[in-house]
Amino acid sequence: MAQNFLMEACVDSVESAINAERGGAGRLELCSSLLEGGLTPSLGLLQVVKQYVKIPVYVMIRPRGGDFLYSDQEVEVIRKDIELMKSHRADGLVLGSLTEDGRVDAKLCMEFLAAARPLPVTFHRAFDMVHDPVVALETLISLGFERLLTSGCENSALEGLPLIKRLVDQAKGRIAIMPGGGITERNLQRILEGSGAQEFHGSARSSKDSAMKFRNTCVTMGAAFSAPEYGLKVTDANKVRTLNAIAKNTL
């Protein structure tokens, strides 16, 4: 019997992708730079991940961190990334764009969806920055997005649970509502029971020490908020397994 839930694992490496599939994830969201909320991954990463996993790989299309108001040049990059990811066997795309007054940029999104066709497209957590989520959801439905990833316009899906529940009720199956943001073994049951959602999104990562023996601890490669040079975060197959078991027992 098919299970009535699906976990989407957010991954930024081949190792994480393999671990996510091994743990029972039903779909991957492939990104780079998870510290910035996820950016467009390299074509090389997509190609190698596709060699190692069989589950669908949805690719993040986001040219930079920060807001979701894009310049003409950034829109050119998004168009090109959509074209490239499609031609290199992405199974779906994850994207979004807003206007300066916090509405879904329907004109741009319509263009992106047309370029992505026939691939299914998820609208990402740009939604959590909109001015009016009720209106924004209807816009996404009318445009033809397959699903919405949201933390309920809060820092985490647990904090945004009341809105996620309202969005699920409003959607009435016209678009999938997928909670994401801070989902762990401790809160998943509450989020699924409280929202009525059938899908959820998480990275399920554990810390992993670098294999480097020589370490220059005086240098960092990024800004002060960046990850430590000699520590890695990798999707943990056991955590994915646990999350799936919780979902199975809940739904």
UniProtKB/TrEMBL annotation:
InterPro entries: CutC-like, CutC-like_dom_sf. GO terms for cellular component: cytoplasm; nucleus. It is found in: Cytoplasm; Nucleus. Keywords: Copper, Cytoplasm, Metal-binding, Nucleus. The keyword Transport does not apply. Pfam families: CutC (PF03932). GO terms for molecular function: copper ion binding. Homotetramer. Belongs to the CutC family. May play a role in copper homeostasis. Can bind one Cu(1+) per subunit. This is Copper homeostasis protein cutC homolog. It comes from Notothenia coriiceps. The lineage of its organism: Eukaryota, Metazoa, Chordata, Craniata, Vertebrata. The gene is cutc.
